Amino acid sequence: MSNLSTGAGRPMGYAEWQEEAFPTPRAVQRITRDSFYKDCGSTTIWYAGPGMNRPLSLNEWQASGSPTPTVRNAPCGGSSPPPTQPGNPGNSVNCTDSTNWAAAQNWFNTYYPYYGDVALLDSDGDRIGAP
């Protein structure tokens, strides 16, 4: 990227980099006009940015700030309506508030794709709520 604020850039070869006195590349977490998306009914989050479109690991998604992905290819499953994004519950529950682990995990799975671990149920980042 030659201009991070506008998202302008193009590939640069060694000779051009040399002509510019070998400027030090800068690592950034996000690029202007990048986006995150997932297909309806899928848990895989994709990154779309200049020159790249690929699935992300959980660590990569978290390193980018856990942005809420847009949902593509809706409606899911033919004629059924797309899932409705639930309201953000915030840090409103603990695992002990659920009757069992499965109920706590279901709560986590409902809100995580949209808001991340808002109730701090997943202390080790493995997408499994603490028992």
Describe the overall structure.
The chain has 131 residues and is of the alpha+beta class. The protein has three helices and four strands. The protein has a domain of 47 residues. The protein is 21% helix and 12% strand. The chain has a four-stranded mixed beta sheet with strand order 3-2-1-4, with no helix packed on it. The N and C termini lie far apart (45 Å).
Secondary-structure topology with pairs:
Elements (H helix, E strand, L loop, with lengths): L13 H6 L15 E5 L6 E4 L2 E4 L2 H6 L6 E3 L28 H15 L16
Parallel strand pairs: 1-4
Antiparallel strand pairs: 1-2, 2-3
Q: What are its keywords?
A:
single chain, 131 residues, alpha+beta, 4-stranded mixed β-sheet
Number of helices: 3
- Contiguous runs where pLDDT drops below 50 for at least 5 residues: none
- Distance from N terminus to C terminus (CA atoms, Å) equals 45 Å
- Classify the secondary structure makeup into a structural class: alpha+beta
**How much of the polypeptide forms β-strand, as a percent range?**
5-15%
Largest sheet: 4 strands, mixed
Helical coverage, percent range: 10-25%
What sequence of helices (H) and strands (E) makes up the elements? Answer: HEEEHEH
Q: How are the strands of the largest sheet arranged?
A: 3-2-1-4
Kindly provide the radius of gyration, computed on alpha-carbon positions and rounded to a whole number of angstroms. 19 Å
Overall mean pLDDT score? 78
Quantity of strands, as a count: 4
Shape: elongated
